[in-house]
Design goal:
Structural class: mainly alpha
Number of helices: 7
Helix content: over 70%
Strand content: under 5%
Largest sheet: none
Radius of gyration: 46 Å
Length: about 190
């Protein structure tokens, strides 16, 4: 049975047929065409799409697991690197403290050097100690004001501390202890 079709409609149908043949003849374009058909007609049986769907689902699942594994490995490497970096910094810190301690720094002095290092952004204890010594020179020890003569057994009444020594020895000691400690600390401090 033949159906009558107008020439214009026949030309449109021929162009659709030509386009469909061209699309289905190219393997890449054919798959896209079939996917579009399946999307437009989801209940239509298209064996190439229907058979591939479970495989695609499985591949998608494997891709997801692989991506998760890669992310896990990346995180593990970063954590290991961070741990190594922290351990190296802690080792450098303790070695720097030991070095300063061997150089004669007290615990107080080490803390002062480290505070300066933190303030200036210095990570090397030796450089920090050099800067600390440069910016905080030790106090010069107090030199005796008199050379003293041969009459050293005779008290010098002009000096207030000498007068205090003979007048109240306990008060003299109470004044001399802080002064002497300050002089000793100035000599030993770095």
């Amino acid at each position: 049975m033949l159906v009558e079709v107008e020439d214009q409609e026949l030309n449109v149908l021929k162009s659709y047929k030509l386009a469909a043949d061209k699309i289905t003849g190219n393997p890449k374009m054919r798959m896209k065409y079939l996917q579009l058909l399946k999307e437009a007609f989801p209940n239509e049986a298209i064996p190439e799409i229907d058979a591939a769907e479970p495989v695609y689902d499985r591949i998608s699942g494997l891709e997801k697991k692989f991506d998760e594994y890669i992310e896990f490995q990346k995180k593990e490497r970063e954590e290991a690197l961070n741990k190594r970096t922290v351990e190296e910094l802690e080792t450098r810190l303790s070695e720097g403290r030991r070095s300063l301690s061997r150089s004669g720094y007290t615990e107080e002095g080490i803390k002062a050097v480290e505070a300066l290092m933190e303030k200036k952004g210095i990570t090397d204890h030796e450089a920090g100690a050099a800067l600390y010594e440069k910016t905080n020179p030790p106090e010069t020890p107090v030199e005796p004001s008199t050379a003293g003569g041969f009459n050293f057994l005779q008290p010098d009444d002009s000096d207030e501390m000498t007068k205090l020594l003979f007048k109240d020895p306990d008060q003299f000691i109470n004044k001399m202890i802080p002064k002497t400690l300050k002089e000793l600390r100035a000599q030993g401090r770095r």
